[in-house]
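B., you asked whether I could sanity-check this one before it goes into the benchmark set. Here's the sequence:
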Amino acid sequence: MELTDSPTHQLTNLRTRHHGWIEVITGSMFSGKSEELIRRLRRAQIAKQNVQIFKPLLDNRYSEDHIVSHSEMRIASENVRNSDELLAHVKDDTDVVGIDEGQFFDPNLPAACNTLADRGKRVIVAGLDQDYLGRPFEPMPQLLAIAEYITKTLAICVVCGAPANRTYRKVKRGGRVVVGGSDLYEARCRRCFELGDRAAAPATPGETHAPLRGSRRRHRAGARAARRLR
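And here's what the prediction gave me:
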């Protein structure tokens, strides 16, 4: 059953309600953010809404003129250099504005989204909420503060299989913004993110992994204590 204040319900009444809002889809890499963005935008297109879709010029990992998810879902998009250029490209008769990789935009993106929503547009933004160090990734926190609707997506930790909300950079590279995919990044849960390169994936049947150095020391200490009690 659809809630009367849900984005899906309001989509069906967009042409008659004449007011806009902001939706944010956020989470770690490999959590399905772009997939969810594409799903919502396709539904808007099916509903005969006028849709424009943007991504930052910086992100050309998979395509120059499409938003492409890690699972190969794709939808045509326009490249823009910054939020001012994005705002200038939105047409008056556009109903829905989709924006991917919000974390790669400049600090003016929240103001641009507010302006579009005030013009009656439905604005949907997808992006990382944390950088590779686990810190809030601007301007996404500011967008979360002003959005009417927020969807938090979780990935699967590649180390232990738990729900993951962190993005771990596997290689040593400087700089907060390093564009890449699974060659550079992987999703991790809180614990495995903190373990860093000391984390080891669980053994598959028939295999064993050596415990971490700290675990070995604790094991030896426990064995010595057990012998003293005999």
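One thing to flag: The helical segments are 7-12, 14-17, 33-46, 83-89, 109-118, 140-146, 190-195, 213-228. Otherwise nothing jumped out at me.
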